[in-house]
Amino acid sequence: MITPEEYTFLSDLLKKHSGLSLGPGKEYLLESRLPPVAVTFGHADIAALFAALRRGAPEAVVKLVCDAMTTNETLFFRDSKPFVSLEKEILPAAAARARSLGRPVRIWCAASSTGQEPYSIAMIVAQLESQLAGTKVEITATDFSAQALARAKAGVYNQFEVQRGLPVQLMMKYFRPVADGFELIPEIRSRVTYQAINLLNPFPAYWQFDVIFCRNVLIYFDVPTKKDVIDRMAKLLDRGGSLFLGGTESTLGVTDSVVRVPNHPAGVFCKQTDLALHTATKAA
């Protein structure tokens, strides 16, 4: 059994290194997810792992503990509305702006997990190629978890995963059967660049994006951490840029660095200064 002292220690460690706000009553998560981590580093049990962490375990141990506690629930075209909005409205408008400036459209998928979200976007881009009039689209996908990133880069999904949200016509067009399931063809995988990013840390100084997807991750953070992450993301949005949050996520009482586009079914947020531009785009 995890003692109250151990639970407090682990909660503080997770909050500091990953932003995860564990909250009370989640001992069962620690008890179910951490034994494999303990074994990996040669510890007899969770108590021995805790003792090592208290003594100042190597960064690799702390990282794997945080990875184990991260929820990587995802699926292709999750919730559908953001992807419909991206295809019909957001991406064509962003491409027109980017084309006038002679640069590519830049999209960031934060907390991209095992890759279903960025690959969903990549498939949309591939489908819209002729409409984008030669405008290149760069998709950057990031995650805290090294294991999730490795799976995403491989682009191989089992039967259950490809059946969750993925239209059958896209599976037939962009996937090939392999021994472990179904593999995305290189044309789609090559459209996404992956890198490890901790959302608590400063973002690269050169980053600017037309679209940011940060869906269903901020729900695990406390309010000050949410505010910090959203405020820093807002600074990365180019003129007319869009921020997609999860369907149940809101910035009310958190920050005013971005505002929700009124009456938008996909939960799109933007800078206050871009609200008129977004409203006009949606009307068109």
Keywords:
46% helix, globular, 284 residues, alpha/beta, single chain, 17% strand, Rossmann fold
- Our count of helices gives 13
- Shape verdict: globular
pLDDT averaged residue by residue: 89
CATH class of the largest domain: Alpha Beta
How many domains make up the coordinates?
A: 2
Q: Enumerate the spans where pLDDT stays under 50 for 5 or more consecutive residues.
A: none
Order of helices and strands: HHHHHHEHEHEHHEEHEEHEEEH
Distance between the termini: 59 Å
The CATH architecture of the largest domain can be named as: 3-Layer(aba) Sandwich
Number of strands: 10
Main β-sheet description: 7 strands, mixed
Main sheet strand line-up? 6-2-1-7-8-10-9
The share of residues in helices is 40-55%
Pairing-aware structural class of the strands and helices? alpha/beta
> The CATH topology of the largest domain, please?
Rossmann fold
Cα-atom Rg, whole angstroms?
20 Å
Please report which band the strand proportion falls in: under 5%, 5-15%, 15-25%, 25-35%, 35-45% or over 45%: 15-25%
CATH superfamily of the largest domain: Vaccinia Virus protein VP39
